[in-house]
Write a structure and sequence with these properties.
CATH topology: TIM Barrel
Radius of gyration: 18 Å
Structural class: alpha/beta
Shape: globular
Order of helices and strands: EEHEHEHEHHEEHEEHE
Number of domains: 1
CATH superfamily: Aldolase class I
Helix content: 25-40%
């Protein structure tokens, strides 16, 4: 079964395979998933077709909650490596995303000055000027790119509504100093064939990230037929990328 949604604005710290000791920030509703993708491997299950009743908290409501909870975590005296905008769906869908980024940075400076502030995003909205501006304010930008064709994206990431693949690719290319996160699956859907990987390697070379994180599912996915890709295959994919492009890749088993 997929895991439960995050039930608070601040959650963790989570010992992340990819981010270290991460304090998460959920900008989205607590009772329903808000995302413009419906990925077959999502740990939170399927994206609902209709919105839930709980409304989105605007920046003026979120900041006092974040301030209070940051204070609680500070008192615990636990090391925080990063503060990560993520949560119950796609954080850039929040209408006050840019303003929230500014406020989170201020809170970081006050409570956890050594921590980096980053975002986990499906990158579907980074063509929007205000979203791109917000991303560039952050220390770390983790952008999703699991596939190298619109057909595979429609099958695996399942965007909600129309999706402009060419615009998506160019927007990825135009974000500087980024890390790409690529999740590989097999089973009922697969993005690990030789042809798919060759195409993915070429696309990664085109969008030119500073690094790529290669991994597979770690929790129960939305689609029960999804299976985890072996560590050996993940290392093969990472090695192929590095040998072809020179771009650093990191495997998380």
């Amino acid at each position: 079964m997929p895991i439960d949604l995050q039930n608070s604005v601040i959650y963790g710290p989570i010992r992340s395979r990819r981010l270290g000791n991460s304090l998460g920030i959920n900008l989205l509703p607590l009772s329903w998933k808000l995302c413009d993708f419906d990925c077959v491997y999502c740990q939170y299950g399927w994206t609902p077709q209709t919105p839930g009743r709980e409304r989105i908290k605007r920046v003026g409501e979120l900041v006092p909650l974040m301030k209070e909870e940051f204070g609680v975590f500070q008192e615990s005296d636990e090391t925080i490596d990063c503060i990560t905008l993520a949560g119950n769906g796609e954080p850039a869908l929040h209408p006050d995303f840019f303003e929230i980024v500014q406020e989170v940075k201020k809170l970081r400076d006050r409570f956890f000055p050594e921590a980096r502030v980053g975002v986990l995003t499906d990158a579907s909205l980074i063509h929007k000027p205000r979203v791109k501006e917000a991303l560039l304010e952050l220390d770390d930008r983790y952008l999703k790119l699991d596939v190298a064709s619109k057909e595979d994206l429609l099958a695996i990431n399942k965007p909600v509504g129309e999706f402009d693949w060419d615009r998506f690719v160019e927007a990825l290319r135009n974000i500087p100093d980024k890390v790409i996160q690529s999740l590989f699956v097999t089973g009922s859907y697969d993005n690990t064939s030789e042809a798919q990987i060759e195409q993915w390697v070429r696309l990664i070379g085109y969008v030119q990230p500073k690094a790529v994180q290669v991994y597979s599912v770690d929790r129960s996915p939305a689609d029960a037929g999804i299976e985890k890709v072996s560590a050996a295959r993940l290392h093969e994919i990472a090695l192929q990328l590095e040998q072809s492009t020179g771009i650093e890749s990191y495997v998380f088993e």
